[in-house]
């Protein structure tokens, strides 16, 4: 199962559990919470009715959810008059019956002794029932044009009290709450009693209390729509969520596959949006790709360098072994002739020096081969005075210069260079040696040193054009006698590459110019 399906399944399971909990909440908890909310709302409403009537003395600004069953009775602290108001009318009633006044006095008493309301005898203080009996026996008997007669019936009281509670709202206000049932419906009756300016304010408020059994069928009827809507929302949100999570991961996977199969070694970075963990992973992979690419390029560069060195060493060893054959064969021929005293070779004094020359030539080739083993790791840099190196090399070739009667012209800006002494001496010495070897007798050599380059010009020399492109190859030399064994410029190029310098040799008017460019100018310091 791929990640997208897993994410969808896990999200669907979690969403299904949430829907189950939501349905359970609506079926079992929501009805009771709604009923409790309505009870609190009704209590708050009777409190508001009582406070507004106390402030205004009328129902002008009073609203009620059941205005026909809402009324307020104002009972002055003395007298036989009471005032009744509701949303529809206001009535003043004068009471002339002593029994009714007796109940009014009880109301006055308990309104000022609220702490004793919990001890009220409900049968004795059943105001509605007792007043009804008084009305039944005495009201409308003698003084009206109409005669009312309350007929008895065998109906029993169908209302049964289920609970009652007294709420002390303020110091001068209490609310008596009673809940009754007729078997089918639940009713909540609220009576708020307050004392205000020596008056007794009594507000009555009756409402039908919602029944849990009435709410649940409505919820059950709504369940199909709720479930369908919830499932649709869950399906859409799950798909969007899974795509939101999976798509960046798929992008990472596809990019990783692309980088694995990429043959041109070009790094194409991913564009990640956001700052979440997946975006951080993408940025980390980008850094990893860049680092790996840098390492690969560095490794490739080193491999190319090693390959080039191996190829160069292979060519060099083959050429050097071939080059050694000539002096070895010549030396053997001379020695064999002298041993056998054949012809002119009997004169050992004349030919032993020639053998020595051949042996010295072989030693020179061998020394050059051994010196080429220098590498980057063997380089030991120090501050070197280039002018002293040039003078040292010229002193080394002083005999040749005098024999050929050369004119040496020097224009040196003395510099200190942080470089390897042995390698820089080899480079300069080989360049000067080449200039001396290839300059005709009584020739002119000019040496110039600046911060950027060392230039050596030997006038009267010339390099064949077909030979010029190959002058840095090993054992490339002109065919003239006594012109070396063709390793000088090869060694110069090899050591210059190790020190990160550039060498250029070219024909100019009346001579040959060899230039060594100092590319690492930060290593140089002018000597005052």
UniProtKB/TrEMBL annotation:
Domain of life: Bacteria
Membrane-crossing segments per the record: 12-35, 218-241
Coiled-coil intervals, chain numbering: 282-309
Enzyme class at the top of the EC tree: transferase
EC number: 2.7.13.3
Keywords, in A-Z order: ATP-binding, Cell membrane, Coiled coil, Kinase, Membrane, Nucleotide-binding, Phosphoprotein, Transferase, Transmembrane, Transmembrane helix, Two-component regulatory system
Domain Histidine kinase: 319-522
Reactions it catalyzes: ATP + protein L-histidine = ADP + protein N-phospho-L-histidine
Subcellular locations according to the entry: Cell membrane
One Pfam family per UniProt: HATPase_c
Name of the protein this chain belongs to: histidine kinase
Organism: Clostridium brassicae
